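Bench log. Compound arrived from synthesis this morning; before running ITC I wanted a structural hypothesis for how tryptophanyl-5'AMP sits in the protein. Inputs:
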Amino acid sequence: MEENKRKRMLSGIKPTGKLTLGNYIGAIKQFVSYQDEYDLLVFIADLHSLTLPIDPKELRENTKDLIAIYLACGLDPEKVILFKQSDVHEHAELGYIMACNSNMGELHRMTQFKDKTAKLGANDSIPTGIFIYPTLMAADILLYDADYVPVGVDQKQHVELTRDIAIRFNHFYGDTFKVPEPVLAKKGAKVYSLSDPSKKMSKSESDKGTIYLLEDLNITRKKIMSAVTDMENKVRFAPESQPGISNLLTIMSALTNEDVSSIAKRYENGGYGNFKKAVADVVVDELAKLQAKVKEIQNSGVVDEILAKGAEKASFLARKKLAKVYRKVGLR
Ligand code: TYM
């Protein structure tokens, strides 16, 4: 029988805070577009949500929303292995092995660690989990021999570290892991905040710059209408000089599949108010459909069974890989 030549792809989202339009455009839409072509695993990175303090009730709610969002966006459990990270204990076990095969220097260099801890200030109470976060992420990826990892720009560095760890491990213990490559969305690999377009749109920044997928759509419209722009009064794709307008163009382009340049041309001289209204219409329309599907899925009671089946399939792969790693390092 001919060997299955399909490449494997894997990615995850952590259920910390509410999902944003950045997660949707930079990550989920990509996952959906790849499900027919790749052997795809998508998971809820719930262990990663524990790396900074989180209310258990909120974690449970976010997890429930995230799986419903995955399904509502069109991930098909018949094609994709959909599962919860904490259901497959091998992630934590390989995470420990990864922590033992990385060093403090490379973990200190991670931009996300620097950003997150800058907010906490320099103090001894920075949780260790946030420091070793990338080693757990490396385990998530290497456990399944993923060829590709679709992520937004902010996670690219973690995938590069995963590559370094895999190469080093293979060198020391002999060929064990596939060395993965990050894949960025062609449009919207970094969606910016509406209120400060120099910053990433982020779940942890609960402000008027972030569009949440399940929020009240009147609020969504208001946020877009009051997005920060500039004084040029010309709709152009110029990320350096007109970051706010360019971000709105990117959002619209990612949701409609129309080129930024042709959108810009259509609204170029029509005034910013007019353009923003068009962007708001597109976003609100997309989110209205999504929200309706999320409700339907949450009321249908299918989620638990999908997660149980996903965990079973993922565990089968993870168990084999971890056994190999344990042999390689001398634990077996
Ligand atoms: P997380 O949960 O912060 O984000 C999930 C995905 O959304 C992307 N993203 C964005 N893309 C474009 N514009 C934005 N403003 C934006 N904000 C977020 C992120 O880049 C990411 O792809 N560590 C990961 C979760 C994870 C993971 C993994 C991912 C755990 N293990 C293994 C891939 C493979 C995270 O915290 O992403």
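What the model suggests: The longest helix spans residues 272-300. The chain has two domains: 8-189+301-329, 207-294.
ITC booked for Thursday regardless.
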